[in-house]
Amino acid sequence: MNHPSPQSGTPHQALKTPMSSAIKHASQSAKLITLIFVLMLVCTISLFVGAKSISPSVVIDVLLAKADSTESLIIVESRLPRTLLGLLVGAALAVAGGLIQSITRNPLADPGILGVNAGASFFVLAGIVLLGNQSMTEHLWLAFFGAMLTSVFVYFVGTYKEARVNPLKITLAGVAIGALLAGVSSSITLMNPVAFDEMRFWDAGSLDIRDLSLASMAVLPILAGIIAALMIAPALDNLALGEEIAQGLGTPVKLVQLSALFAIALLCGSATAIAGPIGFIGLMIPHIARRLSGPNQLWLTLYAIVLGPLLIISADIVGRVIAANEIRVSIVTAFVGAPVLIYLARQVTSFGKL
């Protein structure tokens, strides 16, 4: 009498794994769709709520192009641009944070800690001082190149004489380079009144750009960075198993890491150029997304695309309504992000990992 081999199993066992995978996929899709609806609700609230009280009927008339008044200027030139900008910047910083934490395998890494934002800011400042750049288009390109060069430099310093990525060395290199660039930038702005005046508003981090054309310039580079992040997500899952295993699975490790750095530079450079440096989004959102997605980098990235705008637009709404003169979104995110950073640091200290 022949007995079935252990590998063959029963038909029910053979269907168990695909069925479990389908159920998990449906669950992830349902959670993502729910978050998208919540984001749409927050975006709607962002159009209706602000420092100045405007009747909902007036807001609807303005959005339908049926009204032309002082209120329409507030809605069309302030609330609508900052809502759209929140969608772009939130997604860019959240996805960049997920990429940085993935390639460095450091749960405390984000664009600010690794000096990427400082690099983007420094190059914008250098353009103002040396080239007299004033246009947002020039700021965008300078911020992109600054973020790119800083990312590559931090990566090579962190991997110098190392056979593989050293998360501790990359983090220390990023903190040191970021502090150096921030110190030099502060010295330049203090000695140059023109640069100080130009950077004073931009360097604080705000969504209040009052110009949709500025946001439109960042759409393509941010979309390119997000698409790149989605494309390399399966390879990053392999890298999470270790570089040797990833290479055994056919993953081009160095190419994937450099592709991630390029995507990070696109995302951080563009976001920083149009909104200034906004901290903690890239730190907090990947952890929230990871709790929903598990270890799958593709789902983590998809959640980050939604959760980043959800957090930053909510923070912007809070900043508008709790103070008469409005509190900039970077300050609100810092109030939320600082306790989260302390909590994450304690988790790492206590358990060695999150």
From TrEMBL:
Keyword presence, Cell membrane: yes
Membrane topology, from the record: Multi-pass membrane protein
A single GO molecular function term of this UniProt record: transmembrane transporter activity
Compartmental location: Cell membrane
Membrane-spanning segments: 32-51, 83-100, 112-132, 139-158, 170-191, 212-236, 256-285, 297-315, 327-345
Pfam families with a match to the protein in the record: FecCD (PF01032)
Entries under Gene3D superfamilies matching the protein: ABC transporter involved in vitamin B12 uptake, BtuC (1.10.3470.10)
Keyword terms: Cell membrane, Membrane, Transmembrane, Transmembrane helix, Transport
Family: Belongs to the binding-protein-dependent transport system permease family. FecCD subfamily.
Protein name: Ferric enterobactin transport system permease protein FepD
Organism field: Vibrio ruber (strain DSM 16370 / JCM 11486 / BCRC 17186 / CECT 7878 / LMG 23124 / VR1)
